[in-house]
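Hi R.,

Here's the chain you asked about this morning:
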Amino acid sequence: MIVITAPTGNIGRHLLPLLLDSAPARDEALRVVVRDPDRLPDAARDRVEVITGSHGDPEVVDRAFEGADAVFWLVPPDASRTPEDAFRGFTRPAAKAVIAHGIGHVVGVSALGRGTAVARRAGLVTASHAMDDLIADTGVAYRALACPSFFDNLLEDADTIRETGVFTDAVDADLRSPRVAVADIAAVAADLLLNRRWSGNDSVPVLGPEDLSPDDLARIMTEQLGRPVRYRRQSLDELYGDLLDHRLDEAFAQGVVDMKQAKNEGLDAGVTRTPATSSPTTFQQWCAQTLKPAVLPDRRHSQGTRHAR
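And the predicted structure, written out as C-alpha cells:
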C-alpha cells in the first residue's frame, strides 16, 4: 500500500492520477490523507482509502501509516509557523509513525542546494533539508526530490501578468537557474513509489530541461501569450515587507527572504544536468498548457457574449 499526503495540492493532484492508472496492474492499494475529502476528484474517491485530517497530526499519521509499505511525503505551506516548525516540527509525528509501522520507503519533496556554500543560510530550503535528515534518521529508505523553483509559481502572478504584463521575483534578471513543472516532479515521484527497488538515503534532483533567467521567462511568455511581459525585480526589503503585510510569521517571512538571497548566490547551481536529472516539460510547453489558459480570457466566450449583445 502507498500512502499519499497532500493529494489535492500542486504536486499531489498530478501524482494521484498517475498512481491510479498504474497501481491496479501492480495490485497496489492506495490511501490518501486529506483535510477535505470533497476536494478529491470524483474518479478517485471510490478507488482510494481516505484518511481525513492533517498529516501533521500524530493520530492521523498513525492511522494512515498502519499496514503501509510506502509514503509520499509533502509538507504543506504554513506561513504561520517558523521554518523549523513548519518543516521539521510538522514532520516529527510522521517520523515516529514510520518507525512504529515499519514503513519501507518514503519519497519526499525537498529542495536543491544541499552541499552548496549557502545551504546553511537558505531559509526555507535549510529547513527542508533538516526535514530530510529527520526522515532519513528513522532508517527508512528515503528519496528526497531535490527541486528548484517551479514554473507553476508564476500562476500566483497570473492576474498581474494579465492586467499589467508584469511578474515579480527577488533574483537577478539575468540569473539562469533550473526550473521545473510540478507535473514532472509528480512523474518522478510516481516512478519511485511504484518501483521500490531502491534502498538507503539519497536525493533525486529534478531540474527541468534547461536553465532560465527571469528575463528568459519574460521573453518566452511574451512569445506564448502574444502580448508583452516584463520582469520586475523586487528588493529583499520590499519582499519582506509584503510578506508581513500578508500576515506571515516574521521568522517564516525571513526564511523566504533568506531562500531568495541564497538562490541569487547560486543555491540551485550545484547539480549538473544529465539525462537522469533532466525532466521533459519545457517552459514553452508549460506556458501553452497551463499559464495561457490562466492569463488570457476565453476568446470564444467573449465573442459569443459580444454576438449575443
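The first strand starts at residue 2 and ends at 5.

Let me know if you need anything else.
M.
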